[in-house]
Amino acid sequence: MDHEELISSARLSIWLDHYDDIFSDFDSRTITERALSDDFIHEARKMLKEKPNGQVELKLLVPEGLRNSETEKVVILSVHRQFNRFANVIKIEMKRIRKQGYLMCSIGFALMIAATYIGSFSNKMFYVTALQVIIEPAGWFLTWTGFDNIFANMRKRSPELDFNEKMAQSEIIFLSI
């Protein structure tokens, strides 16, 4: 394998005592429905951070006597399905955060325009000035909080989305040990 091929692929190897190591010990459902183990997800995330970008190749090392090709097919489908579901949940959350950010920015801009309009009155009455003093900071607050949602909060969720999408598209290979 040449240098470029090494850089463009991410290979993860995880040693399993049995197939159940991938799934939560507390979930009693069938293997097709069981939740992924927090330990499995944590190890995959940790290993993926250490690897270069590119297509993920996940090698699951299972004792030779315990291997079952039908179970492996079900495990692969289940792992991909669950990481797809995780990615979709994050996408929905990111869309909601973005929409909320745009709404907050719009309301903030409207409040600042209203404050400017109120400030343009020539007769400075106490109530008009008090209203301007109240809505101007609210406009600034909503605008900057909206921008924070759009940019900073979206950037925080991007690595989690990236991880789940990579794992959902990963090539899962079972090997005997």
Characterization of the model:
The chain has about 180 residues and is mainly α. The protein has one domain. The chain has four helices and three strands, in the order αβαβααβ. It has helices at about 5-10, 40-50, 70-120, 125-170, and strands at about 10-15, 55-60, 170-175. The protein has a three-stranded parallel β-sheet with strand order 1-2-3. The radius of gyration is 26 Å and the shape is rod-shaped. The protein starts with a helix and ends with a strand. About 15% of the residues are buried. Residues about 1-10 have low confidence and may be disordered.
Distance between the termini: 23 Å
Task: Indicate the proportion of strand residues.
Answer: 5-15%
**What are the low-pLDDT stretches, counting only 5+ consecutive residues below 50?**
1-9
Radius of gyration, whole Å: 26 Å
The total count of strands amounts to 3
Mean pLDDT: 85
Helix content: 55-70%
Physical arrangement of strands within the biggest beta sheet:
1-2-3
Counted up, domains total 1
Q: What class would the helix/strand composition place it in?
A: mainly alpha
Shape: rod-shaped
